């Protein structure tokens, strides 16, 4: 395979726009985030060129003051896919992560994106976590009204961590999802992940946590997204939480609501009546690799 890889800079912006103009019907977020990427001191954005044509890109971003990094924004230009370019870019970013001393290199994708999954597996990644995933759009579906007897309490990331330690069956994984992102279920990880989020819990009469949900609002151009994470051990509490989350999406006039669900509530969600067929069985996957021991 011909081509050369080099670091990208802001001067490559037009190349990036051209590469992405046919992706997601021209609505790819990469051109918007690219100027941020190339100006971050803890990141590296690379591209694969043939002559002066940019054929593939990818970004490596290290989480500040950690040994964790993400591979993000992997893209291959239309007409040049299935040639191994994505694997080449990913392999190069793994090398860069190794040079930085990264221990936890993360790569997230949908279980419906078989090409992306193959790239991760070819480069030595393994699945570290998976979460249920579905979307709904306004006008939002009819749903039951929240119960007056259930009163969710707002909590800080520090308090949420304490509750998760006391109630390990609520979130059994050591990793926590929110808005296409994951973090370790530690106090530090939750603090990073939930910095701009609202976190609420439902306690029973004995103080045991029966459910939790986290919410973050995201804006891009003229589109507003409400992203939620939900875990529960009680089905009735889960149904009530879902009603509250839809109400919150409506209250901010979100164009869509996106849900990341723990394994127990993923099954319960199927009985809500508004999860479309395209999301039945669909997961959002977190792949992990330790570049220090990968060769």
Summary of the model, kept short:
The chain is an alpha+beta fold and 295 residues long.
Distance between the termini: 21 Å
The sequence of SSEs as H and E is EHHEEEHEHEEHEEHEEEHEHE
What's the overall geometry?
globular
- CATH topology of the largest domain, by name, is Aminopeptidase
How many separate structural domains? 2
Which CATH architecture of the largest domain? 3-Layer(aba) Sandwich
Q: How is the biggest beta sheet arranged?
A: 12 strands, mixed
Rg: 20 Å
Briefly note the structural class of the backbone: alpha+beta
How is the largest sheet built, in terms of strand order? 1-2-3-4-5-14-6-13-12-11-10-7
Number of strands: 14
**Which range does the strand content fall in?**
25-35%
CATH class division of the largest domain: Alpha Beta
- How many H/I helices? 8
Helicity level, as a percent range? 25-40%
Taking pLDDT < 50 over at least 5 consecutive residues as the criterion, the unreliable ranges are none
Description:
With 295 residues, the chain is an alpha+beta fold. Strand 3 and strand 4 form a beta hairpin. It has 2 domains: 4-102, 3-Layer(aba) Sandwich (Aminopeptidase), CATH 3.40.630.30; 134-285, 3-Layer(aba) Sandwich (Aminopeptidase), CATH 3.40.630. 38% of the residues are buried. The strands form 2 sheets. The chain has a 12-stranded mixed sheet with strand order 1-2-3-4-5-14-6-13-12-11-10-7, with helices on both faces. The chain has a two-stranded antiparallel sheet with strand order 8-9. The protein has helices spanning 13-20, 30-39, 85-99, 114-122, 157-166, 187-193, 235-251, 263-269, and strands spanning 4-7, 43-50, 53-62, 68-76, 104-110, 126-137, 153-154, 175-178, 181-184, 198-203, 209-220, 223-232, 256-261, 283-289. It contains 8 helices and 14 strands. The mean pLDDT is 95.
């Amino acid at each position: 395979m011909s081509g050369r890889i080099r670091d990208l800079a802001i001067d490559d912006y037009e190349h990036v726009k051209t590469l992405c103009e046919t992706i997601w019907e021209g609505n790819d977020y990469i051109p918007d985030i690219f100027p941020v990427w190339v100006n971050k001191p803890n990141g590296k954005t690379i591209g694969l060129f043939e002559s002066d044509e940019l054929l593939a890109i990818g970004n490596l971003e290290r989480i500040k003051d950690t040994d964790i990094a993400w591979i993000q924004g992997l893209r291959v230009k239309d007409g040049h896919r299935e040639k191994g370019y994505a694997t080449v870019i990913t392999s190069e970013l793994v090398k860069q992560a190794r040079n930085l001393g990264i221990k936890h290199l993360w790569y997230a994708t949908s279980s419906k994106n078989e090409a992306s999954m193959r790239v991760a597996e070819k480069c030595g990644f393994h699945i570290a976590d998976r979460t249920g995933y579905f979307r709904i759009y306004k006008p939002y579906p009819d749903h039951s009204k929240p119960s007056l007897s259930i009163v969710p309490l707002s909590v800080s990331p520090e308090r949420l961590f304490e509750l998760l330690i006391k109630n390990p069956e609520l979130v059994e994984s050591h990793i926590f999802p929110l808005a296409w992102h994951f973090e370790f279920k530690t106090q530090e990880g939750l603090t990073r992940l939930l910095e701009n989020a609202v976190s609420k819990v439902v306690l029973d009469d004995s103080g045991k946590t029966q459910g939790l949900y986290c919410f973050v609002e995201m804006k891009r151009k003229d589109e507003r997204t409400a992203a939620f994470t939900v875990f529960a051990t009680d089905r009735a509490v889960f149904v009530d939480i879902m009603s509250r989350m839809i109400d919150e999406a409506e209250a901010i006039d979100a164009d869509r609501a996106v849900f990341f669900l723990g394994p127990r509530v993923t099954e319960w969600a199927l009985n809500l009546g508004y999860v479309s067929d395209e999301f039945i069985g669909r997961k959002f996957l977190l792949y992990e690799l330790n570049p220090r021991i990968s060769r």
